[in-house]
Fold this protein.
Amino acid sequence: MAVPQGMSFGIDHDVMFPQGVFLVGEIQQLTEYQSQEDRARNRPVRPRIDEPTGLPLFKGTFADPSAEKDRDKSFTVLFAAKVQPVPPAAVPGMPFRPVVLEGLSVQPRAETSGQAKWITWTVRATGMRAVDAAPARSMKSAGDAKAA
């Protein structure tokens, strides 16, 4: 069975995170590597671009309370978006923000440590919303609803 290199698989948020997921910290824009020579010459820092979509990349650290192994409890999500995703407002008295990841997909990746090898996942999303907020509708689906 041949699966193309870089293949990712869409997955529903509730299937991947049955107990929800929590944003830890803030969302940050990813930038291209800048050498010391580039910095010394005051060259501008360029945003890192997602090859398949051509959109800028952002990342955030998330916590998954349903993860069985400690190494899986904290992970990074990459966002390919025109603008930086804005997390929902913080919940008073909670150190983390509960969110729902939209447009969720995963891509398998081999991980090694010494002689141990295992499969881990690169997690991507197109956006996020508050847990109790309605899902965002795309412009196409909004147009389809008007036509009906």
Remarks:
- The chain has a mean pLDDT of 85.
- The radius of gyration is 18 Å.
- The beta strands are 9-10, 21-29, 57-63, 74-80, 97-102, 105-113, 116-125, 127-130.
- The chain is about 10% helix and 35% strand.
